[in-house]
Amino acid sequence: MSLHDDEVVSTPELVQRLVADQFPRWADLPVTPGPAGGTDHHLFRLGDDRLVRMPKISWAQEQAVSDARWLPRLAPQLPLRLSTPEAVGEPGQGFPFRWSVTPWLAGASPAVGELGTGAARQLGEFVVALRSVSTEGGPVVSGTSRGVPLARLDGAVRTAITEAGNRMDGPAATKVWELALDARPAAEAAWIHGDLAPGNLLADGGRLTAVIDWGAVGVGDPAADLIAVWTQFRGEQRDVFRAVATDGLTDPDDAWARGRGWMLVQAVIALPYYWDRWPEFALACQERVAAVLAD
């Protein structure tokens, strides 16, 4: 089964043609399958030093342009590398979306709990640095995007809890969700990554090296970036990340409650959709829900 019903499939041959047509300076570089992509992109190596990101689905079609606009502004102010595009490609060769060429960043996506407290501190410091960047002129999140007021997701979350059935503790999840809704809203909006999951982090030698996949970037509720405590860390690592990442917030306890809500938004809504399409991801979502409920 395809990950999405209307997924657009990319191949090395397609990427080779697009690169040769639009970026002839790279036409002689080999194109090979890259690391496994997430929900939104197929990834391909372009030579040894570059990565091509090909959207799988229409909801990801604006990311190449967004990355090219905002990541150069953010990157110089952050302590880890970003997947800043070197070039943005146009639709062509039968491919309907814009796509991007980024540098190949060293490191590998860490497994949950694999990183130590030093990396937990690193990521906490990254979150603080990101929300310290001036938001003037930044893209304010809207609709039901990550970082908007949680109440906008109320119906979707409650529906997903019901659809999940016995795949989670529905009453407990509903209680945590309602506590998140009752928390005071953020005192002010800030820059957020919006999806600090293991696949969007790179590490080498036990230290974080880069933060990638900025499809949810925007200016919104900073609590949305607290989800890393449940997606990436365990035990003492969680305590360290929480202490560092909430430092300076005027409402740390309310932000934590909203952070739990944001984790439910991502994990609960994903469960019914990916249960048969991507069982491994659905299992990870179950584990994240359980971690939030145990917190």
From TrEMBL:
Keywords: Kinase, Transferase. Residues 36-262 form the Aminoglycoside phosphotransferase domain. Coiled coil: none annotated. It comes from the Bacteria. Transmembrane segments: none annotated. One of its GO terms (molecular function) is kinase activity. InterPro entries: AGP_Transferase, Aminoglycoside_PTrfase, Kinase-like_dom_sf. SUPFAM superfamilies: Protein kinase-like (PK-like) (SSF56112). The keyword Transferase applies. This is Aminoglycoside phosphotransferase (APT) family kinase protein. It comes from Promicromonospora iranensis.
